Amino acid sequence: MDITAGRKHLKKERYSVEARGVSEDLFRDLLESIIGQQLSVKAAGTIINRFMGLFPDQKNIKPEDILARDEESLRSVGLSRQKISYLRSLSEFVVSEKIILATLPDLPDEQVISHLTLVKGIGRWTAEMILIFSLGREDVFSVGDLGLRTAVSRNSKSRKYLKRGALTGHLPASIFGEVSTTYRGGYSVRPLCMAPSGFCS
Q: Which one of 6, 83, 90, 110 is CB 3.0 to 4.6 Å from 176, fit for a cystine?
């Protein structure tokens, strides 16, 4: 979509939105996204904090650090065996350079999604949340997000897009305000939080 037109629409409707920009630590964002899958915000935050506490340098966790940890220590912070396998899969992809995180900001949306979903445990929804919240892609619409679709359907201005099946992975400017407020304070990503911490609060 035309971001300039979207911003004008927001201003007209008395909404405001701030571009997040690109995250300084995509690896950490992905770790938190995986850990938070299918958990409430509170439970996810607790486990994420315990997980980060396993590492001496909590602000600079590397994939090698994850791979060096045994399963027992990872399980001790509340991680399931399945999620441990997901975290290791991500770490292995990064170490082997099957995914080069530093290149993601320069790739088109669908290429980012294609790269990330190669990792065990990362589906399209999680990849789209990374696009929105970690890569600052303001016009991405997560079509598969049931909560978001429900919120859009409750707004008379945007309901027509659902009825005619016109919702795609990007937003038309005319519903930019409605959908942006849904992301910022509404119905989606609650109570199941899979976005990086701070984005579901």
A: 6
- Provide the greatest CA pair distance for the chain: 55
The whole-angstrom separation of Cα 88 and Cα 1 is: 36
Catalytic residue selected from 25, 106, 109, 145: 145
What are the distances in angstroms from CA 46 to CA 26, 43, 78, 143? 20, 5, 9, 29
For the chain, give the number of residues. Answer: 201
Alpha-helical runs (H) found in 76-187: 81-95, 109-116, 124-133, 146-153, 159-163, 176-185
Residue with tokens 């441990």: 84
What's the whole-number mean pLDDT along residues 165-177? 49
Calpha distance 141→144 (Å, rounded): 9
Per the CB < 8 A criterion, the answer to whether 133 and 199 are in contact is yes
Is the alpha carbon torsion for 109, 114, 117, 118 positive or negative? negative
If pLDDT is split at 50, 70 and 90, which confidence band does 139 have? confident
* Residue 81 phi, psi dihedral angles, 5° rounding: -60, -35
Annotated active-site residue 109? The verdict is no
With 0-12 CB in 10 A as exposed, 13-18 as middle and 19+ as buried, what is 69? middle
For residues 109 and 61, what is the distance between their CA atoms, to the nearest angstrom? Answer: 26
